[in-house]
Specification:
This protein is of the alpha/beta class. It has one domain: Rossmann fold (3-Layer(aba) Sandwich), CATH 3.40.50.150. The protein is 34% helix and 22% strand. A 7-stranded mixed β-sheet has the order 3-2-1-4-5-7-6, covered by helices on one side. Helix 2 (24-31) links the parallel strand 1 (15-18) and strand 2 (37-41). Helix 5 (95-108) runs parallel beside helix 6. The longest helix is centred in the first third of the chain and has 14 residues, at 44-57. It is globular. It binds S-adenosylmethionine. The site of S-adenosylmethionine has 13 residues, from helix 2.
Length: 165
């Protein structure tokens, strides 16, 4: 994923790390000079670990890390003004999460933004449920590549997608 960040994003890009955990993806960006990053995750423990890592290794970067669930995080944004985000994410991939995930991405992205996401292979092309298809069909796939290793917990095959709207 880190290589794709370099190809599709520039250092000034406004980045949103959705469901950041302890920030594996954001750390790759900061290692490569990215500074304009907002990250959030529902887990207090993980966001605190991430804040600790930032204080230790990235003290010169003022990343914004929030402990928040994405329903509330996106509800608090004003989509008329608060847009223009490029997304990086390895989200929870149960269906109940994925439909609002794509809907919220669509709301915060503009046409020149991209999303680099790691999700189960083939998920983006699912025909059912209709609500999922209705939202995923609004995205264009710029690039896809299979992950060599499966998701650790579930053994599901995964792919990295670069999307735009
Ligand atoms: C598959 S992990 C990915 C973590 C991180 N992005 C990474 O690449 O290591 C999914 C993350 O989603 C978070 N999560 C689950 N449900 C969430 C929700 N409703 N709102 C925000 N984050 C959530 C979990 O705490 C977990 O850190």
């Amino acid at each position: 994923m880190a290589k794709l960040f370099q190809v599709y994003l520039n250092k000034e890009s406004k980045i949103l790390d959705v469901c950041c955990g302890f920030g594996i993806l954001s750390q790759k960006l900061m290692d490569n000079g990215f500074e304009n990053i907002t990250a959030f995750d529902v887990s207090y423990n993980l966001t605190e670990i991430f804040k600790g890592i930032c204080a230790e290794r990235y003290s010169e970067i003022s990343i914004n890390i929030e402990c928040e669930n994405y329903e509330r995080f996106f509800q608090n944004l004003d989509f008329k003004k608060d847009k223009g985000y490029n997304i990086i994410s390895n989200p929870p991939y149960e269906m109940e999460h994925m439909i609002p995930f794509f809907q919220n991405l669509y709301n915060v992205m503009e046409e020149d933004n991209i999303a680099v996401i790691l999700i189960p292979k083939g998920f983006i092309n699912k025909e059912r449920p209709k609500q999922l298809k209705d939202i995923t069909s609004k995205f264009k796939i710029l690039h896809s590549e299979d992950m060599k290793v499966k998701f650790e917990r579930t053994g599901v095959n995964a792919e990295i997608l670069v999307l735009t709207i």
